[in-house]
Amino acid sequence: MLDGEEKKTHRPLRSAVPPADGPSAGPAAAAAGPEVTGAAAAPGDGTTGPGVTPEANVQGGATDPKDGSTADPKGDGDDPATGTDAPGAGDSGDATAPATGRRRRIPFAHAVRLPPPRQTARAAVTATRAWSRRPSGRLVLPGLFLLVLVTVTALVGALLVPATVRTPRPAAQADPTGPATGWPDSGPSALTPGVPTGPVGGMTPPPGQFPGGPVAGRPADALAGWAQQTAQKLGIPVVAVQAYGYAELVLRNTTPSCGLTWTTLAAIGYVESRHGAANGAVLGADGQALPKIIGDPLDGQGGRMRIADTDRGVMDGDLVYDRAVGPMQFIPTTWQEIGADADNDGQKNPHDLDDAALAAGNYLCKGGRNLTIPGDWWNAILSYNDVRRYAQDVFDTANRYGVASRT
Question: Which residues fall in a compositionally biased region of kind Basic and acidic residues (predicted)?
Fold first, then answer.
């Protein structure tokens, strides 16, 4: 209470400090409040704005109800003893001016900064490692690892297994004499029009003398007329021509898709044993070559394969290594698989050219080969004896026989 009337003092307007309504405030200062349009007092100079009495400035703080002292309601630096603002207080400046300060840049939503790839990878590894220690990770990770392992194994197997499948063991073994060059791109029947592709020598087999009908004696004897004429042209024993021709006719019935011709068998017989005449042997009228033709031991020497004994010497008389036997030079394991009885004597004899020629034809036609296709023809000969020079010699001889038989 001043001068007998109630007055309400009002401090100059400050941003962030609301006016205090103390118990001793009077209405006089409230009327003066709206007149403050200028700048507030400078920090620390003790002046007030227009229309505000010093008493109003002194009593600007709120009165403590306990001891009657005034206190700064914000605690922002007003000196209660002098009624002035302490230096550094936030009540200076124009009351209507906007607050000043450092500008803050607000990033846009699309301007999000991504962490570096290395940091992302490290975080992913850390998260995966932590997850692997949990029960779910311990169950799932081994399953994923096994799935990846099985997939990789299947892919590698699909690529490598076909390339590493063991090639069939040759049916015969001959000494290599050097590599051949300039291989033709086709089989002999494709290069030489004279190689027969139909019935042997254009002959039709007599009825009842070939597979499918009753046979008496040596079936190949039915080809005696044709064999006599052909043997004179080629210089081959008649018995040998009969054996080769009969083997073609049998295979034409049993394996028609093979397309094997007698000239190929005759060429193999010539290269292997000169048609049963190797080592001083003589080809008899029954087709047997005597004395028996036994090849060199397959001991890995001189370019030969190394094959330990498999028949306990039953076929070749050797208890240490296997040997090729007979006029078509079969090794024991191959003969046990592919041997045939072509002369109806109840025996599969590798020293009998009738049996050996038919067995050689069965071997060449294995695996669904079509010997009218050049690639299949060459593969068949190399499967019989995997030597380049050998295959070339068979090709040249078959070609020569084909041409000569057509003249």
Answer: 64-77
